[in-house]
Amino acid sequence: MLPISSTQNPTIKLIRSLDDKKARREAGLFVVEGIAMLERAEELGWIPDYLIVTKPLHLFDAMKPFIVTEKLMSELSAQNNPHDVLAAFSQRWQPHPTKAGNWLALEEIRDPGNLGTIIRTADAIAVAGLILVGDCCDPYAPECVRATTGSIFGITLTKMPTASFVDFAKAWPGDSVATRMDAKQDYRRDYMAPTLFVMGSEARGLSDSISSACNQKVRIPMRHGVESLNVATATALMLYQTLK
Questions:
Q1: Rg (Cα) of the chain, in Å, rounded?
Q2: Which of 1, 142, 174, 187 is most exposed, with minimal Cβ within 10 Å?
Q3: Mean pLDDT of 43-55
């Protein structure tokens, strides 16, 4: 069978459309590129809805891939040096967070690169799940997925409106920890498990309503004159406090 070369092929048109957030939401799909990312997906039991390759591949053996030309793959890829394989997977959202294990909540984070890095760190720490609070960027956007380096498959995702999260944080059974620059306590301390870490947006930090719902408020000390830490860096410091 000759490789697919036409951008008008229905499957190819669908894959191309997933660059758009609205299309991803409507289709419930997202795109992953590269063999290393797909090996992590297979290891964790994810099966793609569509598998696109330029040459035979020993992954997801039960699947019949769509074979495309290298030229068409370069048009599908979001990268300057396209891989030989990409796949589209169904998005996974847990309806509600649990109160077991350590969780991370992010309020209105907007940068997909930061979010992807945070997902990668949360996976490394074995966080039970990640809560996106309010108007956050899409964790299944290509830039975010790429920044996770495969950890998008290893972390539980859920989302909540701000008002619902405030109620959730107030009822949290362990320490709920708000990170704020004006807090008195240093972040380097022991926390009561299960711990809920709550981080604010890149631009505005954590809102007063969510901060007030948490039973602990801490700061990361910084040299005078430094405006703030990158949210992904700050989140990594907070999460690693659980690994003492």
A1: 20
A2: 1
A3: 95
